[in-house]
Design brief:
The protein is α+β, with helices and mostly antiparallel strands.
């Protein structure tokens, strides 16, 4: 892995089932993620993907490419356009830096309305002895439209 390496595009169809099931799986019971009438009453076109799902999809995109020997060292994302059902979320990425065994990968997820998620994923570049994505503490903490996770081997 070296700076300039591009990650192949990954396209994910967004279905109502994906939006609702991942919101429930992440214990995000906000009605805008599962109730179309409530989401529309709040000014949204439809239900939309939650930030924890967007974070997890960024992680999956990178680890599917990088392989099972990497460890997630950090994720920092910013949300933009909502990800609605019946759209496609298209991920692209590039390694922007590799320093001291840590690769920084710039990630972007686009929907028809524009950038849904942008940010960086940091991974170890060497082999590890533990689980590739084990963490200490919570996987994600959110403040507004920004999520950040930091992990390491236990």
């Amino acid at each position: 892995m070296k700076a300039g390496d591009e990650i192949p595009v990954w396209e994910l169809p967004i279905t109502p089932t994906l939006v609702v099931s991942t919101a429930i799986a992440t214990r995000d019971f906000q009605d805008v993620h599962h109730d179309r009438d409530r989401a529309q009453a709040a000014g949204s076109k439809d239900i939309f993907m939650n930030i924890l799902t967007s974070t997890a999809l960024c992680e999956r995109y990178v680890t599917d490419w990088a392989g099972p020997d990497v460890q997630i060292k950090g994720i920092a994302i910013r949300l933009g356009a909502p990800a609605y059902p019946y759209d496609t979320l298209s991920f692209s990425g590039e390694v922007s830096d590799v320093t001291d065994g840590i690769a920084t990968i710039d990630v972007r997820g686009e929907v028809s309305l524009g950038a849904h998620v942008t940010g960086t994923v940091k991974v170890s570049t060497g082999s590890t002895t533990g689980d590739r994505a084990s963490t200490t503490g919570d996987r994600a903490s959110t403040t507004g439209y920004r999520a950040s996770t930091t992990g390491g081997a236990r």
